[in-house]
């Protein structure tokens, strides 16, 4: 899967993005056969997966059903307007994750307790992107939605 993401164009935190795709949302697309819907969504929206989330996807790839892997490969042959947003940290470094988040928003570092989710939300704040996630327990909750309102960022669970 890594090689599929390696072929996508790169963005930096200085670029603007319409939507950031969380790891669980990306997997959900293929588990629920939403590839066509996602391709149509990408025609109208500039979407990105953070390099941090790409590393998470590569880490869990061996747990994915073979059908999902096949669907993902087919999808990548058709995809346009999907990018990798480069972030300067990697999974498994909670101190680095906290430091990255604090650089963007000290308050976010105190509100979101999961460093992995906080990294994506910090990237969303920096790029002005809304977030697509299926992670209802951590990211998709009223507390964070209220916090993100001041940045005009929405957390959504469908496109």
Describe this structure in words.
This protein is of the alpha/beta class and 159 residues long. It has a single domain, classed as Rossmann fold. Helices cover 53% and strands 11% of the residues. It has a 6-stranded parallel sheet. Helix 6 runs parallel beside helix 8.
Task: Give the key terms.
159 residues; Rossmann fold
Low-confidence stretches: none
Strands in their spatial order, largest beta sheet: 1-4-3-2-5-6
The amount of helix comes to: 40-55%
Strand count, sense and barrel status of the largest sheet are: 6 strands, parallel
Helices, by number, come to: 9
CATH-assigned homologous superfamily: 5'-nuclease
The CATH architecture designation is 3-Layer(aba) Sandwich
* Outline type: globular
Radius of gyration: 15 Å
Short note summarizing the structure:
With 159 residues, the protein is α/β, with parallel strands linked by helices. It has helices at residues 2-6, 23-31, 35-44, 51-60, 66-78, 94-104, 106-111, 115-127, 142-149, and strands spanning 10-11, 19-21, 47-50, 82-85, 130-132, 155-156.
List the helices and strands and how they pair.
Elements: H1 2-6, E1 10-11, E2 19-21, H2 23-31, H3 35-44, E3 47-50, H4 51-60, H5 66-78, E4 82-85, H6 94-104, H7 106-111, H8 115-127, E5 130-132, H9 142-149, E6 155-156
Parallel strand pairs: 1-4, 2-3, 2-5, 3-4, 5-6
Helix pairs in contact: 6-8
């Amino acid at each position: 899967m890594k090689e599929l993401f390696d072929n996508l164009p790169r963005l930096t935190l200085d670029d603007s993005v319409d939507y950031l795709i969380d790891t669980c949302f990306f997997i959900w697309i293929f588990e629920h056969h939403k590839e066509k819907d996602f391709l149509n969504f990408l025609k109208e929206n500039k979407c990105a997966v953070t390099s941090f989330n790409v590393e998470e996807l590569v880490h869990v790839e061996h747990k994915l059903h073979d059908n999902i892997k096949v669907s993902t490969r087919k999808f990548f042959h058709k995809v346009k307007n999907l990018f990798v947003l480069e972030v300067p940290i990697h999974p498994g470094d909670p101190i680095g994750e906290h430091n990255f988040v604090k650089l963007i928003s000290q308050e976010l570092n105190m509100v979101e307790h999961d460093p992995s989710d906080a990294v994506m939300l910090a990237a969303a704040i920096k790029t002005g992107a809304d977030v697509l996630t299926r992670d209802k327990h951590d990211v998709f909750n009223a507390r964070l939605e209220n916090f993100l309102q001041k940045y005009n960022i929405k957390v959504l669970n469908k496109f």
